[in-house]
Amino acid sequence: MRKRTWICGGAVAAFLCVLALTACREKESRREPVTLTVWHVYGGQTDSPLNGLIEEFNETVGVKEGIKLQVTVVSNTNNIHDAVLRAAKKEPGAAKLPDLFISYPKTVLAMPDPECLVDYRDYFTEKELAAYIPSFLEEGKVEGRLVVFPVAKSTEILFVDKTLFDRFAAETGATIEQLDTWEGLYEMSKMYYQWTDAQTPEVERDGKAFFVHDYHFNYAQVGVASLGEDFFNGEQIAYGDGFMKMWEPYADAAVQGGVWLQEGYATEPLRTGDVIVSVASSASVLYYEDIVTYPDNHSEPIQVVARPVPCFAEGEKMVMQRGAGFCTVKSTPEKEAAAVVFLKWLTEPKINVQFVTSVGYMPVTEAAFQYLPKAIEDLKNPKYKSLYEAFIETQASYSFYTAPQLASYLEQEQTFEKTTRSQLRSAYLKWQKGEGDVEKLKKEALQELEDAMP
Question: Among 246, 230, 152, 253, which Cα is nearest to 403's?
Fold first, then answer.
């Protein structure tokens, strides 16, 4: 009898233990996942390739690991740069910093306390980091800490509205190969202005610009470096022979109306037919449309093709290495580890190639590059195929320029961009009215630039 009682008691105890374990597991499964807020730049809030991948992560790895990513902002890098700095400085009305945000090193350098960001070397082993392209990791280091993690990299590409270019070429004899050099591009810019001006003989000097560059500061420093000189002398711009070789054809075309100098991104004037050639990030392929809508509101389909950026006839083939990375804000060990789980997943070779080929970027690991040729074959959009053909040629023939990490870099960049555009546009308007000689106007614009630079 006692033995039987003991057996029954043991069974009850075991049953209660199972119930307790089940309850614990149910409680564990009901536990809220670690939620991470994200600001990024890849597409739009409702139409973003990265948003789609984040949903996939949340439904797979996220469910298993108890992680949920929540995208709260999708914007451009300039807007996110401003928002990050306002948040970091705790300005009135500023949003709180998200757990993950896209950034360039220049943004981190401008933050009041970069130490608020995770050093990824605390979460990646040396073996894991060895899988990534070394120069991509190096660009993400600020003051010796790896704080900007690469998930995709881009470069600058020449985009051409081939439909309108072919019309221009048919009447003038211009060839697309002339766009291989900066000298050829700027000469063609002046020719295009004159050609469009001639279409309205009743109005003098009302031609159209031919070319727009998204970042004049990038053009300047890469151009000078490609000619074998340093663009910077310490924290200042060095106005040497290389600078003048870069400046002369550019300013000459700008003063005579061939270069678009208004504010905004290079994609905008191409959409409206105000220019037909642009240099922008390869990632801008997302925003180049296959239709142009003119100021009078009529539209027509166009073909946009991509080519490597021009180089100077006597210079090295060189192009800016671009592409921001993810920063993780220090918080709790659980949140920081969760962010790294996501970044490791996003940079797995097949996932990474799927991501970058949807947004016009390069993958970030050696292994991912092995998947790239097949992915390009599978691309259906001819604009993307053209982009990756240009991209492969760029990879094979060009060296990459990485902007230096200078304390004054951001101020130098902003001042150069604003002053160059405004002064050269002012010079063009004077030339348009017949109020000045081209050489004199170029010289005055350069002097204004030198005076304005910090």
Answer: 230
| Helix, strand, coil percentages, rounded to 5, for the chain | 50, 15, 30
CB 321, CB 401: distance < 8 Å = yes
Whether 194 and 207 have beta carbons less than 8 Å apart is answered as yes
Displacement of CA 92 from its chain's centroid (Å): 29
Same fold, 34-148+324-360 and 155-321+399-452: yes
pTM (2 d.p.)? 0.79
Q: If you classify domain 34-148+324-360 with CATH, what class do you get?
A: alpha beta
Q: Which residues of 109-125 are buried (b: 16+ CB within 10 A; e: fewer)?
A: bbbeebeebbbbeebbe
Q: In the chain, what are the domain boundaries?
A: 34-148+324-360, 155-321+399-452
Closest CA to 342 of 58, 10, 19: 58
pLDDT at 197 over 50: yes
Query: Vertex 67, ends 61 and 68: CA angle to 5°?
Result: 105
Per-residue pLDDT reduced to its tens digit, 215-234? 999 999 999 999 999 999 99
Per-residue model confidence (pLDDT) at position 45: 59
CATH class of 155-321+399-452: alpha beta
d(CA 38, CA 95): 12
Is residue 308 within 8 Å of 94, Cβ to Cβ? no
Whether residue 386 contacts residue 306, with contact meaning beta carbons closer than 8 Å, is answered with: yes
- What's the rounded Cα separation, in Å, for the pair 101 and 104? 10
Question: Within 13 Å and on the Cβ side, how many CA atoms surround 19?
Answer: 6
> Which stretch of DSSP H or E encloses residue 100?
strand 100-103
Q: What is the DSSP letter of 124?
A: S
Q: Which of 109-123, 133-147, 368-382, 411-425 has the lowest mean pLDDT?
A: 368-382
Q: Is the Cα torsion angle 62, 66, 72, 75 positive or negative in sign? A: negative
Task: With both helix axes pointing from N to C terminus, report the angle between 349-359 and 333-346 in degrees, rounded to the nearest 10.
Answer: 80
| Tokens standing for residue 297 | 């509101």
Residue 217: both structure tokens together: 């500061």
